[in-house]
Queue: 2 jobs
Job 1
Amino acid sequence: LELEAGWEALVRPRSGNALNRGLGVLNSPGTIDAGYRNEVGVIVFNAGPEAQSISRGQKIAQLAIRPLPVIRLSAIPQAELNLATPRNLKGFGSSGS
């Protein structure tokens, strides 16, 4: 795989494998950036009750290729942040997991 700068590929699971076989793709979607030059590997997990085998050439994932947006970030001093929300700076799990 070789992507031009400004593009990414996303490795996604196939819904039929999840529905029919209990197979999923870890780290999904997996991102492949434009600097990567090699074969693409897929980490598959089995959430089903039975052992599964995967044959060479079998469809286990799909690849979506899309342009990356150009984003400019600006630092905002903490004193200027609006902290008057139920979550404010609490971070992980603060939305009521």
Job 2
Amino acid sequence: MLKMKTKVTASLFIAIGLFASAANADQPTTATKQVEQSLARINELDSTYRAVISISPTAKQDAQRFDQGPVGYLQGMPVLVKDNIDAIGLATTAGSLALKNNMPSRDAPSIAQLKEAGAIILGKTNLSEWANFRSEKSSSGWSAIGGQTRNAHDIARSPCGSSSGSAVAVALGYVPVAIGTETHGSIICPASSNGVVGFKPTHGIVSGAGIVPLASSQDTAGPIANSIENASAALAAMIDAETENYQTLVNGLRTLSNNLDAGKLRIGILASTLGYDARRDALFNNAVDKLKAAGVEIVNDVKLEPYAEFWDENYLLLQYEFRRDLNNYFATFDNDLQSMTLAKLIEFNKKHAKQELEHFDQSIFEMSQAVAISDKEYQEIRARGHRATREDGLDKVFKQHRLDAIIGISGGPAWLIDHINGDSFFGPGMSGYPAIGGYPHITIPGGEIEGMPMGISFIGK
């Protein structure tokens, strides 16, 4: 994974800290009790919601060991992990039958660091198969391994994805923190749609090793949590120690404190997320009123306008990187999967069509396999995309308006699950620019429309 040079932006911590609230005061005090309560909750509910794919066979022993000696600052917290991230003792499947026996020999670095900080890996969460990069008619939260994950607030509605199970598991109270991955909205959308906190970090500050790739220029792991504090603490544990200003960043995440005053903040409103639905706008305006009450200076009508081919080119870039990165990922294996390729996956799905292609096709797989651009063309597309999102995009807007953060609507309320037509999205969100440009993006609960959650997003420098 390529790394951006990253400096801590204390102002983003202040902005999200204005909405921070204490985590569950009734949280058990021992690791064993936390794990027992989590497992009981999963046993009670998950046959309906299908947020969890597997449970660690050593979770209870791990908890008992933590209770007998010192633990890190996560204090024996049970954590669930999206099933495209390696954790010892649990298969890494990406939701696909092709990987059902893919047992990693080591933890992904981010998971090893969570354990070192005192987390107990409870199990794996369901996801949109292959991180929702298999079909243009997909149903978020469905995988051949895990079935259909359902929204925590209405089982008829989508959990969004691709970190579907992670968001639902937190919303249902299975765990205070679950780990997801994002390439373009896959942490932000399910967190927003299930009414929890989702933190997509700056690209490159969390190691991408041990994670099934989609596109290395955008992929990152990050936490989904029941509070800003828990999300920040988990992210602090996951950050690669080689990150520039590592200790300053970790300290800021762990404390959400600094020497700046909220009254000195300037936050811009991203205009493109407003005007779709008056109910969305009303919830968003409530959040803005809280910022104003805290003394934040609000800048209205901030606009980002990419070049005409921007979104189509980014889609082509993802297809190119997916084929390249997935083939390279398989080549690193030391088992029978070493010879697997995207082309062979396509054939595998055809042979297992009854299970794998039950609800939707593999059109994106096929487009990615057939993509025909040279490395030079790829590099040119990537450079144009970065310039559009960075120098001519977010950097320009931050500088022009002297902003500390940008705020907007994360996305609309969840749609009905539809295995015939696939996903629907109701209104624009915020994920594109920070995902492609590599900027930090956090969504926090912003209220509900007819009982369905909607998130408020912050983008930092």
